[in-house]
Amino acid sequence: MEFSSFKRLVRSKSGLRIVPANDDMKSPFLLSEPPWTPDSETNNCTECKSKFGFTLRRHHCRRCGLIYCGQCCATRLPLPRMSFVDPVRMCDRCADRTSNEQDFFERHLKILTSGASFVPDSSYSRADSLLCKLTPDHRYLLFEGMSHEPVDLLLIKSFSVSKDMEILECNEDYNSGGSSMELVFSAAEGDQEKHLKLTTGPDPLRKAGSSWILAMQQALKLIYSIDNS
Predict the structure, then answer these.
(1) What's the predicted TM-score (pTM) here?
(2) Which of 114, 143, 144, 180 has the highest CB neighbour number within 10 Å of its CB?
(3) Which residues pair with 158 in a beta bridge?
(4) Domain span including residue 19
(5) Which residues partner with 16 through β-bridges?
(6) Gap between the Cα atoms of 50 and 63, Å rounded
């Protein structure tokens, strides 16, 4: 299995982007650059409905591709989900969405790639502990210290968290870490489902494990969010 970190610099009308050398190996957190709405298709700002003219120019939001006036598309922010080198122009709605994602890219993603120690359920492994972490290309979970194939993030069917005897489904609570987690996944598309349960190690490792579980919840929320544009 190949974990590629090779990148290439590409230029589009939205700006410079650093993308994987092989499109098949892109991070599941990345979004495709949207097509721009042609200027000829609208004479009014998508948000405030002001009419474009000689003194009111059209501007495209780099995240959604829609057309706005300068006032409704004035914010410039880093957009890691599209791998832009520099901050790019966005409409207010996309700017809010991007700002809400910043914590994941600045904090949670680093936690996931650094990894945390867990104790596997005895039915899965005899190992006392293992290191669970995300690969550098963000596509797979690795389990160091345990003979287990990497798990493709896109093949995870469900992710449940146990905390104080209460099971919290990841699509219901993203604000709490937990003391254990259970993954339900397929080894390949169409394969039978498999289960893997891991528990945080004893103190002082417990806090790091709980933080890793919280980061994993945020990662899956980002990947499977319905409004992902």
Answers:
(1) 0.80
(2) 143
(3) 184
(4) 7-103
(5) 11
(6) 21
Contacts of 113 (CB under 8 A, 6+ apart): 133, 134, 135, 136, 138
CA distance 186 to 196: 11
Tens-place pLDDT, residues 153-173: 999 999 988 874 433 444 344
Distance CA 186, CA 156 (A): 7
In this structure, the chain runs to a length of: 229
Q: Letter for the amino acid at 156?
A: I
Is residue 110 assigned to a domain? Answer: no
User: Up-side HSE of residue 96: CA atoms within 13 Å toward CB?
Assistant: 4
Q: List pLDDT tens digits, range 209-226.
A: 999 999 999 999 999 875
Assigned token pair, 196: 């893997």
User: Has residue 203 been placed in a domain?
Assistant: yes
- Cβ-proximal residues to 203 (8 Å cutoff; 6+ apart), any chain: none
Position 195, amino acid:
H
Distance CA 88, CA 77 (A): 6
| Residues 140/81/49/74 CA torsion (nearest 10 deg) | 160
Lookup result for tokens 């669970």: 132
Any domain includes 172: no
Q: How many domains does the chain have?
A: 2
* Token pair of 61 as six digits: 């939001």
* DSSP code, position 144: E
Strand 75-77 relative to strand 166-169: parallel, antiparallel, unpaired?
Answer: unpaired
